[in-house]
Amino acid sequence: MAPEHRRSMFRPCIDIHEGRVKQIVGGTLSGNEEGLKTNFVATQPPEYFAAKYRDSDLEGGHVIKLGPRNDDAARRALEEWRGHLQIGGGITADNAIEWLDAGASKVIVTSYLFPDGHFSLKRLQTISSLIGKDKLVVDVRHVVSFTLATSESHVKLSCRRRGDGWFVAMNKWQDITTMEVNKENLDMLSQYCNEFLIHAADVEGLCQGIDKELVKRLGEWVTIPTTYAGGANSISDLETVNRLSGGRVDLTYGSSLDIFGGTTTTKMPSSKVKAYELQSKSKNDLTKQLSELKNELLSLRVQKILGGSASKLTRINVVRKSIARVLTVMNQKQRQNLREFYKNKKYLPLDLRPKKTRAIRRRLTKRESSLKTLKQKKKDIHFPIRKYAVKA
């Protein structure tokens, strides 16, 4: 079966620094707090933003802990929407399972893979085998940077640009490693994770536009789901990423979003985006997601939702629409599989046979309308329509 065409999607994020949600200019994040530049500091707790993403049905988001003393805040955000947010920042093989148990859908790793600034394949293999490839995301940051992710864990790598290439950066994007970001290395990493997270640290937080050259290269290199973050400042950037990457790279908005003090609305067309995401999933993944949505709908009927009854009704409506989209995509995939199975065969199932629409029937002549198949003629002979006179 031919693969479904995919479009780039909007991926939400929550960056936590010193226990609060902030939008930070990437290149200023270091041990020296005096040089730190922030675009936004939220008065609301992290779980508020998680609830916003949940109510808008924005899947695939990530929570990033920037420095120490952020664990409690991150746990509250994950608990608000269990199983739907990825977690990154200080993730190692020792605590990865703990964060998955706390409600993370995947874990994101970067610095852990680079002891002393050199890539350790052994560490990547260890954490991948421990939690499963589908739970791992690799985050690559460059000043230009990028990230990889698997279904349950996420490896976070940052990279910086040197000359004509990009190299992975670590430790809040300040230390540049010896690992170059290229097709060969991405192919190697993708054997142990199922998603990349790419941070362009040179442009992150500046709202001055995305790194188009990097996005184009990623579209040519990556073979697994990939999310780019850095510089997005308008909704049109999503279409630009889709065009440059051929729909292979998703986009994260940060400082430019209205909920973070920017001007870009968070009311993005998530329903259409979600349909493209569903079409790329396997039958088992769709069945699992359908089961989760049905369980969530059952719990919503007796659960108290942050924001009052209006918010609860909104969420129920979102879940119902999500269930409908999953069922629609499952039906489409089933019909496509049937078409492939019965291709060039003599007999077709009834639901795959061409139907006479009303417009086609109206164009038939009287003679064409009166024509009957041999089977129908025999049926009329042996089982004629009985006419009865009803006595008044």
UniProtKB/TrEMBL annotation:
Q: Which residues form a coiled coil?
A: 276-303
- Highest taxon of source: Eukaryota
What are the protein's UniProt keywords? Amino-acid biosynthesis, Coiled coil, Histidine biosynthesis, Ribonucleoprotein, Ribosomal protein
Q: Which GO terms describe its biological process?
A: L-histidine biosynthetic process; L-tryptophan biosynthetic process; translation
According to the UniProt record, one GO cellular component term is: cytosolic large ribosomal subunit
Q: What are the protein's GO molecular function terms?
A: 1-(5-phosphoribosyl)-5-[(5-phosphoribosylamino)methylideneamino]imidazole-4-carboxamide isomerase activity; structural constituent of ribosome
User: What InterPro entries does the database record attribute to this sequence?
Assistant: Aldolase_TIM, His_biosynth, Isoase_HisA-like, Ribosomal_uL29, Ribosomal_uL29_CS, Ribosomal_uL29_sf, RibuloseP-bd_barrel
Family, similarity comment? Belongs to the universal ribosomal protein uL29 family.
- In its UniProt entry, what is this protein called? Uncharacterized protein
Task: Report the source organism.
Answer: Rhizopogon vesiculosus
